[in-house]
């Protein structure tokens, strides 16, 4: 479902151009569990951002569900992102003024889902991440593990086929991190494609496939 | 994205910055309040003056001797006219069917005295018709009786100021008053007119027109006031009057006719222009408030960069982000505008209490245009920050925390 063909991504940093992705060819099938590993600066995040449609490759072809998405305009990209891709961040990125339930609701608000349906789906999502008691709590009243579970609920609320996670346990203690990984793996068992960045070998090796990046190349 | 969601998102965002929001609302409300107050003042002044002119009399035509022409040479500034208007001219006007009343007016200044108290005042000679034409009312006694205009009766009606100055607490009606070297009996006292445009009837003595002509040793009239039967008849009466005067003045059209309409309209236009000017000056403060809104929005966008990146990652389009930030700017301005209108209303009420005689009036269109202007300001000044937010690169935005 995810097909990357000769993907290059170069950044201009001052006078120098940095080759963050160098001729990436990668196919990820539906329901796969892939981990992306590599040292810092190896292009892991850039690769994930390209897959998430947050970043456009400098050259190459990316097709998602057999649709070439490298030529879509901004609005079409937003729609594809909304419907197909869930994203979990290392730094959670919850909106501080909103409660857990409201944070989970945001993607549906952007998609224009009717209020009744929204409330029902948020309740279900909170139940799925075992946070139904915390619905009205704001992020500053939640622990790191709870915050990341809210973020996962938010990522999954539009029922995307692909879940991308950028070091989802990077800011958590090992016990909460373990819970988050289990949650993500459970989602993967329900046919969600899971792509996760990590530099923790133990974590990375739990995936079906490990992609190692060094200097923007798959090795 | 639904409208109520957009509104609630913007409201929540605004709520997190109460002090900044209060300041911007204050700035906006000062701008809106000054525009509404000044518009109200100008508009009230206009209505006040139009009312005053209408209270001078209804369906009024003023006949002035002499004619201002644009044929070159010096304009006849001080009644440089070939022929005087006379009492006979005034009486001849009754030939028109459209005329209801005619008050010839002769004016001069003379010293008046009684029991050693002397005062220099304006003496106005006229007939009983003046009361009807100028809507005068009396506090004591009678007005000039209906009699032959050529009869120089030794009676007079005095204004309230003269009554107070010369007779103080005493009864004035029936007393004798010396004007120049003639004696006149006071037969009535005018009611105080309060504020009035033009002529101050409070400080004036009214005598029969023939007496005034005798006092000042002249046959000519200062002007003739004509009241027509109806508003429609006014223009026909104007034609009739110039026709009659022409006949009597050997074919020369040497009078100037001023209708009350034209005077009122002129003042109306001048004051409307003044109101507009003053309101435009006040709207400079609105522009300043708009720049403040822009500043607040820049800060807002800068502070919420990571959030904008998140919204984009969650599938928000450029249009949606633009809309969210414009709504926020509009909400700020609208809150400011509402506060401003309220502030303006309160100020006007306070002014009304301090100056009860002057009718303060805030036109409804001014309120709506103030609200509209504030919204437009917000949208104009909010567009740049909102565009910046919408155009952000999601990856860079997300990495900024």
Architecture overview:
- The complex is a heterodimer of chains A (219) and B (401).
- By secondary structure, chain A is an alpha/beta fold.
- Chain A has 7 helices and 10 strands.
- In chain A, β4 and β5 form a beta hairpin.
- The longest helix of chain A is centred in the last third of the chain and has 16 residues, at 174-189.
- Chain B has 401 residues and is α+β, with helices and mostly antiparallel strands.
- Chain B folds into 2 domains: 3-53 and 265-399, no CATH class; 104-223, no CATH class.
- Chain B is built from 12 helices and 10 strands.
- Chain B has a 6-stranded mixed beta barrel with strand order 2-3-8-5-7-6.
- The radius of gyration of chain B is 33 Å and the shape is elongated.
- The A-B interface holds A 49, 52, 54-55, 74-75, 78-79, 81-83, 87, 89, 91, 93, 95, 97-98, 106-107, 109-112, 154, 158 and B 1-2, 5, 9, 12-13, 15-16, 306-307, 309-320, 393-395, 398, 401.
What is the topological layout?
The complex is a heterodimer of chains A (219) and B (401).
Chain A: E1 2-13, E2 16-28, E3 33-37, H1 44-51, E4 59-64, E5 67-68, H2 74-84, E6 85-88, H3 100-111, H4 115-128, H5 144-156, E7 162-166, H6 174-189, E8 193-197, H7 201-204, E9 209-214, E10 217-218
Parallel strand pairs in A: 3-8, 3-9, 6-7, 7-8
Antiparallel strand pairs in A: 1-2, 1-4, 4-5, 9-10
Helix pairs in contact in A: 3-4, 3-5, 4-5, 5-6
Chain B: H1 3-15, H2 18-55, E1 60-65, H3 87-92, E2 99-114, E3 117-126, H4 129-134, E4 138-141, E5 155-158, H5 160-167, E6 176-179, E7 182-190, E8 204-208, H6 209-216, E9 223-228, H7 233-248, E10 255-259, H8 260-303, H9 305-313, H10 318-354, H11 364-390, H12 394-399
Helix pairs in contact in B: 1-10, 2-8, 2-10, 2-11, 8-10, 8-11, 10-11
> What name goes with the CATH superfamily of chain A?
P-loop containing nucleotide triphosphate hydrolases
CATH topology of chain A: Rossmann fold
Share in helix of chain A:
25-40%
Structural Rg of chain B: 33 Å
What is the CATH domain class of chain A? Alpha Beta
Biggest sheet architecture of chain B: 6 strands, mixed, barrel
% residues in beta strands of chain B: 15-25%
Q: What's the structural domain tally of chain B?
A: 2
Number of helices of chain B: 12
Structural domains of chain A: how many: 1
Overall pLDDT confidence of chain B: 85
Question: What is the mean predicted local confidence, pLDDT of chain A?
Answer: 91
Strand order of the largest sheet of chain A: 6-7-8-3-9-10
The most extensive contact between chains is: A-B, 26 and 27 residues
Q: What is the 3D form of chain B?
A: elongated
What gap, in angstroms, lies between the N and C termini of chain A? Answer: 22 Å
Would you report the number of β strands of chain B? 10
Strand content of chain A: 25-35%
Largest sheet of chain A: 6 strands, mixed
Q: What shape does the CA trace of chain A take?
A: globular
